[in-house]
Amino acid sequence: MKNGAKWSLRSKTKSSASAPGTSPVINQKSKKGQRKGARSRNHTLANSMPAVHIRTQDMLSPLERQFLDAAEKGNRPTLEACLQQRSRIPLNINAIDAMGRTAIEIAVDNENLEIVQMLLMEPDVRIGNALLCAIREGVYELAEALVNHPSITKEMLGEGWAKYLDPSETATSEYSSDISPVILAAHLNHSCEICEEERISDGLHRSLKRINTFRALASPAWISLTSSDPILSAFKLSRELQKRAKVEDEFKVFHRSIPSVIR
Fold it and tell me: Where is there biased composition of kind Polar residues (predicted)?
């Protein structure tokens, strides 16, 4: 994943966490891409009352209504047919439904990766709140696909998020504009699996971990409690530390200082 660290999100399973200050989300079991129960919109961390920003259906063209309905149902052929008519009939791919959701946000809400990937291929699609929705849902594949979109930069994931959002996206968002994707991931306790793996496999980390382990093993209290012959164990440990000091030259000062604790 480009543009920063990958979040440790679940794959194809629901996340039970919900952002502080928002209404609890009751996850409903549903087939992939199928419509789930309606979720209340416009809740911010600062205000538990939803903002009033409802767009009536008569503000949408017939093609836009068909487009959003197909996104809700996960009907790819209909979506493709709607997109093919754009050359003849105006179609705003970022049009919002009565709940303030765009087609891509609806697809993310329904965890329909196939529809999301298809919509991401459109040059004028806006990610907007769909990324926050993917993080909230906890679906790693969706979050990765959205973050990898060319319109999303590393800066947008943090402090630049508020500048990226349109006023309409801010008004229809469940979160206030200061809640960036990174902040929301932290609120939901999504850690970074790849970063953790790299940290554990890092040579410096292993060396420091080994030094701390030797320090613990060199403790007189530890040796006396765990060894039947503390003196022999102390000599063996001292010899091992001298060998390690030759192998890891950059840490030889530490390795040579540890035996002094045993003496």
Answer: 14-28
- The pTM for the full model equals 0.54
Looking at the structure of the chain, the number of domains it has is 2
Residue-wise pLDDT for 10-34, tens only, equals 544 343 344 444 433 333 334 444 5
C-alpha 123/C-alpha 151 separation (Å) is 9
Counting DSSP H helices and E strands in the chain, the numbers are 15, 0
Task: Read off the CATH number of the domain in which 158 is found.
Answer: 1.25.40.20
Q: At a CB cut-off of 8 Å and minimum separation 6, what does 187 contact?
A: 19, 20, 179
DSSP state of 50: P
CA atoms of 144 and 135, how far apart (whole Å): 10
Radius of gyration (C-alpha) of the chain in whole angstroms: 27
CA angle 116, 125, 32 (to 5 degrees): 15
d(CA 120, CA 7): 20
- Quote the Cα angle for 160-165-166, to 5°: 145
Neighbours of 48 (CB within 10 A): 10
Going by C-beta distance under 8 Å and a sequence separation of 6 or more, which residues neighbour residue 212? none
CA angle 233, 236, 248 (to 5 degrees): 135
Query: Does residue 181 sit in the same domain as residue 252?
Result: no
